[in-house]
Amino acid sequence: MDHDHMPGMATPPPPPSTAAAGGGGMEHHSPMGMTHMTFFWGKNSEILFSGWPGTRTGMYVLALVFVFVLAVIVEWLPHCRRTRNAGEFFGGLIRTVVHGTRIGLAYIVMLAIMSFNGGVFIVAVAGHIFGFFLFGSRLCFNKYSDDSHKDFPPPATC
User: Fold this and answer.
1) What's the chain look like in SS3?
2) Residues contacting residue 94 through CB under 8 Å, at least 6 positions apart
3) pLDDT at position 13, please?
């Protein structure tokens, strides 16, 4: 059966190759513009939301600070201690909500990294490192007075 002459069954031509034009990288052409499929450097990108931060340097710096702070919060959440006076049920409920919040924020950081912007990747990793240094390494905020928990991070009991 010949599908070339059926109405509505024509196959659109493939997009032009960027490698032939000297681009060299893998890009995906969508109706909204071009999405990078490899890491790139530059302030002209979209992170998390369409059109944000755009082409303005100040908004790009704000986006980097936002991703950094989110990564620090992701590292802080499992180390906070707020259920000491809560009952068993409410303590479990609070820990569950905090865990869900942490997972949601971690996915937002992951989606920001999927913009394939090298600066976003660096600040996300730096935020996780800084957050672990502050809250996980117990060098800055030592919550244990004995050495019984020396080799293990504190449990996620918020």
Assistant:
1) CCCCCCCCCCCCCCCCCCCCCCCCCCEEEECCEEEECCCECCCCEEEEECCEEECCHHHHHHHHHHHHHHHHHHHHHHHCCCCCCCCHHHHHHHHHHHHHHHHHHHHHHHHHHCCCEHHHHHHHHHHHHHHHHHHHCCCCCCCCCCCCCCCCCCCCCC
2) 82, 83, 86, 158
3) 53
Cα gap 58→52, rounded to integer Å: 11
Asked whether the beta carbons of 23 and 29 are under 8 A apart, the reply is no
* Reported pTM: 0.67
Residues (pLDDT < 50) of the chain are 17-25, 29-31, 145-158
- Residue 112's pLDDT is 94
pLDDT score of 54: 83
Instruction: Using CA atoms of 72, 78, 81, 85 in order, give the dihedral in degrees to the nearest 10.
Output: 140
Residue 34: the pLDDT is 60
Assigned token pair, 49: 């939301």
Compute how many other C-beta atoms are within 10 angstroms of the C-beta atom of residue 78.
Answer: 18
Q: Residue 6 has what pLDDT?
A: 55
